[in-house]
Design the sequence.
């Protein structure tokens, strides 16, 4: 019988759902983004919830193996690529000219937001002490440039925002994911080494600030600068074809994610710094402005990740009485 040739299993269902959803979203993406002002992240998350284990139960990442490891590495790739793209798309020499504005948003403003958020978490979850609340707040204080795409992107709504504000928000969004590291590790070191303030200061300043953040940013800029010189030389000598030229940006972001993780540095900050060093002279952005390759890659990985994210939301844990 013909039905004996059917081979239905979970990976095939994932292909159908992800491909079908992405196709439908792209067919009406202009209406969703530019009339309803809804980003792809929200729509993809809803799709994941619908087809996830708590609804249709067609996609269940819990059966794939180590879900925590999958989520960590999937998130790492999405965020590093996005932070790299933000650095690449900044105007020529932007960080050199506007570093004071970015620093003001990152240090005093982000610190204030971190402390205020920790107080709200401490108040809302009585079982947590304030140091635990600081750790949770550090995870949610940094805003994601993916979720701010309607403001800093290239849609009709974004055009209503002055360009200098969009550039500033983009630069801050690219930096602050990596700048969450000092806040997270400060809370961790306070919990681990208290009441020894010398150990807290030593580990936080030497390991987190100097090595993971400052040296990580320097490493990222060096990688970006070396990659920029290499691709310009290859382009001038006609050693690289058009397809490889466009994809070079994505594989360089993957290199930053892997090397930053292996060296124990802030891979998100490395990705952003590498993007800044890679396109600081504006040459690569000028060559790829009409191709929109970064937007295409970002859209695909964002849709895939947020569908996955919608399937792993732990709804049952929201009702655990020991957390209240």
Sequence:
């Amino acid at each position: 019988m013909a039905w004996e040739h059917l081979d239905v299993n979970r990976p095939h269902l994932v292909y159908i759902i992800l491909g079908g959803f992405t196709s439908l979203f792209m067919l009406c993406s202009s209406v969703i983004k530019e009339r309803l002002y809804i980003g792809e992240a929200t729509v993809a998350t809803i799709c994941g919830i619908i087809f996830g284990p708590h609804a249709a139960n067609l996609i269940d990442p819990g059966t794939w193996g180590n879900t925590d490891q999958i989520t960590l590495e999937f998130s790492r790739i999405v965020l590093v690529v996005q932070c790299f793209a933000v650095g690449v798309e900044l105007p020529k020499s932007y960080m050199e000219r506007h570093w004071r504005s970015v620093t003001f948003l990152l240090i005093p403003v982000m610190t204030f937001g971190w402390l205020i958020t920790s107080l709200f978490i401490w108040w809302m979850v009585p079982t947590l002490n304030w140091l635990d609340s600081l750790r949770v707040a550090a995870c949610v204080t940094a805003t994601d440039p993916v979720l701010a795409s309607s403001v800093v992107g290239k849609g009709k709504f974004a055009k209503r925002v002055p360009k200098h504000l969009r550039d500033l928000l983009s630069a801050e969004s690219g930096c602050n994911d990596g700048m969450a590291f000092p806040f997270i590790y400060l809370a961790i070191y306070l919990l681990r080494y208290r009441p020894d303030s010398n150990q807290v200061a030593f580990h936080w300043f030497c390991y987190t600030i100097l090595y993971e953040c400052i040296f990580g940013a320097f490493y990222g800029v060096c990688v970006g600068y070396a990659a920029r010189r290499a691709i310009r030389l290859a382009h001038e000598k006609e050693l690289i074809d058009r397809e490889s030229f466009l994809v070079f940006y994505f594989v360089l972001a993957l290199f930053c994610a892997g090397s930053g993780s292996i060296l124990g540095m802030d891979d998100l900050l490395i990705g952003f710094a590498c993007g800044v060093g890679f396109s600081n002279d504006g040459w690569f952005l000028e060559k790829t402005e009409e191709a929109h390759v970064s937007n295409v890659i970002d859209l695909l990985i964002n849709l895939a990740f947020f569908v996955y994210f919608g399937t792993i939301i732990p709804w049952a844990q929201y009702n655990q009485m020991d957390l209240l």
In short: DSSP finds 14 helices and no strands in the chain.
